[in-house]
Write a structure and sequence with these properties.
The protein has 50 residues and is an alpha+beta fold. It has one domain (4-49). The protein is built from two helices and two strands, in the order ααββ. It has helices at 4-14, 25-37; strands spanning 40-43, 46-49. A two-stranded antiparallel sheet has the order 1-2. The longest helix has 13 residues, at 25-37.
């Protein structure tokens, strides 16, 4: 089973943030900035980033 903290850590590592698994202000800001640039689509019941 995948934990939310594992997903957050992977996102942080992929985007040059400190990979502590905590959804803090820096992680939130990075996710919000990316969400404005990268469209996402709901496909097959799962979110897919393109």
């Amino acid at each position: 089973m995948i934990k939310n903290s594992d997903v957050v850590k992977r996102f942080q590592m992929m985007h040059g943030l400190s990979a502590d698994g905590i959804y803090g202000t820096k992680t939130k800001a990075k996710l919000e900035a990316l969400s404005k640039k990268i469209p996402f689509f709901l496909k097959g019941g799962h979110f897919s980033w393109f």
